């Protein structure tokens, strides 16, 4: 079971809402499954239905995480107009088999959904999420 601090979930949701109609992207850092850091990244694509984390921002983040002895625990992005399910492209481009992939859907008026997945060798497994105060 993955535990995510409510303050971080709220930041992710705000990032998704501010980025719409484009997709947002970001990384959650920590150690193991302990999420302690939120790192929103710029979406380098102008398409509204895809994302690419800004490579320079991503490189800087990875350097800082290494210095702090933290790791990528989760990767999140939004689906402004579709359900919170990884797309075929999301699955093909997944590179972190130990990371939780969070998909935020803004598809339903007045309702936001966040679902977590592990993606390993093209296989997608939905994970249980707990939000802690």
Tell me what you see in this structure.
By secondary structure, the protein is α/β, with parallel strands linked by helices. The protein has one domain (2-132): 3-Layer(aba) Sandwich (Cytidine Deaminase, domain 2). Helices cover 24% and strands 42% of the residues. A hairpin with a 2-residue loop joins strand 5 (100-108) and strand 6 (111-120). The longest helix has 14 residues, at 6-19. The chain is globular. The model has no long low-confidence stretch (mean pLDDT 92).
User: Could you spell the SSE succession in H and E letters?
Assistant: EHEEHEHEEEE
Instruction: For the largest sheet, list the strands in their spatial order.
Output: 3-2-4-5-6-7
Tell me the CATH topology: Cytidine Deaminase, domain 2
Helix content percent band: 10-25%
Q: What's the CATH architecture name?
A: 3-Layer(aba) Sandwich
**How confident is the prediction overall: mean pLDDT?**
92
Largest sheet, strands/sense/barrel: 6 strands, mixed
What's the end-to-end separation, in Å?
16 Å
The H-level CATH homologous superfamily, spelled out, is Cytidine Deaminase, domain 2
- Helix-strand category: alpha/beta
